[in-house]
Design goal:
membrane, mainly alpha
Length: 98
């Protein structure tokens, strides 16, 4: 016994998820926390000390802070606008359902 079924409705242009490009120039900033710790002359010394910490140790902690700050900046600058995120969420839900 055959039953009639309706084909899934085609989404309109307002329901389409916007295309995402990860080719933002802001992503180049992510190279800074990778490249800066590789410059050995920056920390090849004992002085100046911070408290009793030699330069090498406190500069390593500064590199961690540099990495966090750079990553946060790139995230904030490349984040999708709210309307685009909602459209993407609707499109993902629609794709999961059928």
């Amino acid at each position: 016994m055959a039953t009639a079924s309706t084909p899934p409705s085609t989404p309109g242009p307002q329901d389409a998820a916007p295309r995402r490009s990860d080719r933002s120039p802001w992503n180049w900033l992510l190279l800074i926390p990778i490249v800066v710790p590789l410059i050995v002359p920056l920390y090849n010394a004992v002085d100046p000390k911070w408290g009793s910490f030699p330069l090498f140790y406190w500069l390593q902690l500064a590199f961690v802070a540099l990495g966090v700050a750079t990553t946060a900046l790139v995230y904030r600058m490349t984040r999708r606008p709210a309307a685009e995120r909602e459209a993407a969420a609707r499109a993902a839900t629609r794709d999961r359902e059928g």
